[in-house]
Amino acid sequence: MRFFDWVSRGGTNNDNINVPNELHLDQTIEGTIYIMVGLEGGSRFREKIYSMGLNPGVKFSIIQNSGHGPIEIEVRQTKLAIGRTMAAKIKIKQNGNLA
Asked: How far apart are CA 67 and CA 53, in angstroms?
C-alpha cells in the first residue's frame, strides 16, 4: 500500500502490526535485505522517515552497522544514514541476503 493511500485510509502512528521475526533497524546485519514494517513515534517522526523514502513495505539493504554511530542503508537507489535513536523506533523484518 502506498503511503498516501495509507494516510487517506486513516493511518495512525500506532503501527502495531504483529509480525513474526520483527526487529528494529538498530538490530540489523550488514549485507542483509529488510522490509520496513512500521514506526514507533509521532507524526513528525513519521513525516521525516517517510520523506526519506522509507515507507511501510519498502525493501532496503544495510550498508553499514558497526554497533555505534549512524546506520547506513540503501533504499530505492539512495543511500541514507539514520541515527541510532531514530533507528530504534523503526520496525522491520528480514527479507534475505544480498548476492
From this structure: 23
Determine the 3-state secondary structure of 64 from DSSP. Answer: strand
Full set of structural domains in the chain with CATH: 21-97 (2.30.30.90)
Residue 26 has pLDDT above 90, yes or no: yes
Question: What's the rounded Cα separation, in Å, for the pair 34 and 27?
Answer: 11
Going across the sheet that includes 78-82, the strands are 22-24, 90-97, 32-39, 59-64, 71-75, 78-82
User: All 3 cell numbers of residue 15?
Assistant: 503501527
Predicted TM-score (pTM) of this structure = 0.74
Q: What is the pLDDT of residues 56-84, one digit of tens each?
A: 999 999 999 998 899 999 999 999 999 99
